[in-house]
């Protein structure tokens, strides 16, 4: 049993890929949680030189246990918890870890969290998959960690303990993903024991369109991981895509990375997915791949035809949407910004 990370691009099919691999009988996945961004972030020093800086312990705790799909809480959860505990002017670190974990579980129970009644391990799992004792150890490590690698090692250790306790030792991989973890790809450059990583990319012109619409939706829903001012335009996202691809391409010679394109998975799921499973050493039986496709396709998840748009997290599932949405002037500007990297990944100008 070993970890597997999906470090794909933002709005490029990382959730779809996570669901598809989680549905394989030799894998188990966990709902979105960027284990690196939870611990810290890069800060600019000079031009393109950056340094990784740890977040303060309270921020780490409230990010992992609150601002992730793995453990999603309302923005008022911690202020309300501190007030109810008679400590409105203090921080979450002033509360016993066991109390925090218990209250989060109480919150999920009171709100009828789906995982309380779902015992099928085909679906990416959440906070509730873990026993409270292991969650307390995770909490303690998060508060006191001094390195990203140290935190990751503890996470993987706790996952394997939980899997063993549940009798799931015959599985091959456990998966984590962060939608834009590629921006932290340099964190992995000095690994002692390389972790397998899947890089899924998408035409940056489409990814930027989806990013703008997704952020608008999250602001409307007042999601815990967005703010009222968290608004970036199309070209901002496209520039970010270009920089991330340039950085990622330098890593592709590393045997621990596997790259695939969203468009290939979209237009030829069976063959593209079978090739990925072969790289992972997993069962590539046509029957398994067909069952996974039937469970995780756009049509199965949304009840809509691919390309039919709705204001939802899974919005449209479109390929080459940019060709319809962008004006000719915008298309030329997009190519000027991202053409070099688009061409390198096999995407045409027109």
Would you mind describing this structure in some detail?
The structure is a single chain. With 350 residues, the chain is of the alpha/beta class. The chain has helices at 14-22, 35-39, 57-64, 77-84, 97-110, 132-144, 148-165, 204-220, 234-249, 262-267, 269-280, 286-296, 298-302, 322-325, 328-344, and strands at 2-6, 27-29, 40-46, 49-54, 173-177, 196-201, 257-261. A five-stranded parallel β-sheet has the order 2-5-1-6-7. Strands 3-4 form a two-stranded antiparallel sheet. β3 (40-46) and β4 (49-54) form a beta hairpin. α6 runs antiparallel to α7 (148-165). The N and C termini lie far apart (44 Å).
Write the layout of secondary structure elements.
Blueprint: E1 2-6, H1 14-22, E2 27-29, H2 35-39, E3 40-46, E4 49-54, H3 57-64, H4 77-84, H5 97-110, H6 132-144, H7 148-165, E5 173-177, E6 196-201, H8 204-220, H9 234-249, E7 257-261, H10 262-267, H11 269-280, H12 286-296, H13 298-302, H14 322-325, H15 328-344
Parallel strand pairs: 1-5, 1-6, 2-5, 6-7
Antiparallel strand pairs: 3-4
DSSP summary: helix tally: 15
CATH architectural group: 3-Layer(aba) Sandwich
Identify the CATH class: Alpha Beta
- Give the number of domains: 1
Q: Which radius of gyration do the C-alpha atoms yield?
A: 20 Å
Given the C-alpha coordinates, what overall shape results? globular
Average pLDDT: 85
By secondary-structure content and strand pairing, the structural class works out as alpha/beta
Question: In which order are the strands of the major sheet placed?
Answer: 2-5-1-6-7
Question: How many beta-strand runs?
Answer: 7
CATH topology term? Rossmann fold
Helix fraction bin: 40-55%
The portion of residues forming beta strands comes to 5-15%
Distance between the termini: 44 Å
Order of helices and strands: EHEHEEHHHHHEEHHEHHHHHH
Low-confidence stretches: 116-121
CATH-assigned homologous superfamily: P-loop containing nucleotide triphosphate hydrolases
User: Main β-sheet: number of strands, strand sense, barrel status?
Assistant: 5 strands, parallel
């Amino acid at each position: 049993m070993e970890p597997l990370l999906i470090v794909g691009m933002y709005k490029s099919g990382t959730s779809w890929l996570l669901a598809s691999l989680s549905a394989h009988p030799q894998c188990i996945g966990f709902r979105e949680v960027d284990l690196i961004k939870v611990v810290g972030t890069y800060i600019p020093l000079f031009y393109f030189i950056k340094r990784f800086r740890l977040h303060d312990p309270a921020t780490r705790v409230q990010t992992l246990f609150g601002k992730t799909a793995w453990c999603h809480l309302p923005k008022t959860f911690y202020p309300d918890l501190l007030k109810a505990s008679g400590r409105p002017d203090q921080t979450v670190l002033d509360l016993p870890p066991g109390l925090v974990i218990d209250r989060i579980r109480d919150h999920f129970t009171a709100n009828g969290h789906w995982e309380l009644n779902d015992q099928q391990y085909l679906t990416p799992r959440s906070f509730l998959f873990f026993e409270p004792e292991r969650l307390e150890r995770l909490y303690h490590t998060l508060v006191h960690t001094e390195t990203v690698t140290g935190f990751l090692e503890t996470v993987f250790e706790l996952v394997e303990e939980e899997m063993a306790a549940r009798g799931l030792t015959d599985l091959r991989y456990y998966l984590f993903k962060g939608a834009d973890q590629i921006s932290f790809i340099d964190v992995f450059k000095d690994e002692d024991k390389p972790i397998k990583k899947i890089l899924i990319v998408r035409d940056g012109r489409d990814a930027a369109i989806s990013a703008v619409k997704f952020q608008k939706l999250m602001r409307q829903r007042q999601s815990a991981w967005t703010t009222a001012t968290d608004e970036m335009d199309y070209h901002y996202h496209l520039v970010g895509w270009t920089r991330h691809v340039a950085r990622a391409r330098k890593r592709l010679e590393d045997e621990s990375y596997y790259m695939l394109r969203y468009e290939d998975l979209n237009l030829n799921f069976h063959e593209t997915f079978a090739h990925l499973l072969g790289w992972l050493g997993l069962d590539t039986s046509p029957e398994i791949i067909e069952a996974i496709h039937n469970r995780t396709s756009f049509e199965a998840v949304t009840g809509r035809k691919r390309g039919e748009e709705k204001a939802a997290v899974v919005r449209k599932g479109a390929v080459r949407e940019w060709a319809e949405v962008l004006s000719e002037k915008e298309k030329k500007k997009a190519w000027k910004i991202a053409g070099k990297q688009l061409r390198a990944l096999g995407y045409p100008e027109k």
